[in-house]
Amino acid sequence: MTIQIGDKLPSATLFEFFHEETAGCSLGPNAFEVQKEAAGKTIAILALPGAYTPTCSAKHVPGFIENSDAFKAKGVDEIWCISVNDAFVMGAWGKSQGADGKVRMMADGSAEFTKKIGMEFDLTARGLGLRSQRYSMLVQDGVVKQLNLDAPGAFEVSTAEKLLSQI
């Protein structure tokens, strides 16, 4: 079953790679429990089929990076980019996109989170395996407040601009 507005985020673990070690956070990959990370925060989430893929790299992630200040001005504490890739790939992709300090590049390497919210997308026939559908959502204190799911192969409703207009 696909997650809906009003649903709570599931118990799942996402991973993040840091380029600089800080107190309490090694370079990574670092594991983060979704429910604990989302508690008490307003989070804009974008999810997409894969790191370094054309639409994701040219349009989806850049839109959220470019609008990160506008999200913060509307009360969004964090922006998460979730993809079924490992933390090393997500970290490198985030660095190449200039996401540091703007968008957290959260790896769902085993698709645990993606499966639990019913957003898995089988692209095995195209050589990509199990991936995430393209969507954006607004989450407040772990509860989905907005959800924008694109049709397979489309990039129309999950844009940063669309989610910003819903806040």
TrEMBL record:
GO terms for biological process: cell redox homeostasis; cellular response to oxidative stress; hydrogen peroxide catabolic process. Keywords: Antioxidant, Oxidoreductase, Peroxidase, Redox-active center. It comes from the Bacteria. InterPro entries: PRX5-like (IPR037944), Redoxin (IPR013740), Thioredoxin-like_sf (IPR036249), Thioredoxin_domain (IPR013766). Pfam families: Redoxin. Signal peptide: none annotated. One of its GO terms (cellular component) is cytoplasm. The active site is at residue 56. Its EC number is 1.11.1.27. It is an enzyme of class 1 (oxidoreductase). Residues 3-167 form the Thioredoxin domain. The keyword Oxidoreductase applies. It catalyses: a hydroperoxide + 2 glutathione = an alcohol + glutathione disulfide + H2O. PROSITE patterns: THIOREDOXIN_2. The keyword Oxidoreductase applies. One of its GO terms (molecular function) is thioredoxin peroxidase activity. Belongs to the peroxiredoxin family. Prx5 subfamily. Thiol-specific peroxidase that catalyzes the reduction of hydrogen peroxide and organic hydroperoxides to water and alcohols, respectively. Plays a role in cell protection against oxidative stress by detoxifying peroxides. This is Glutathione-dependent peroxiredoxin.
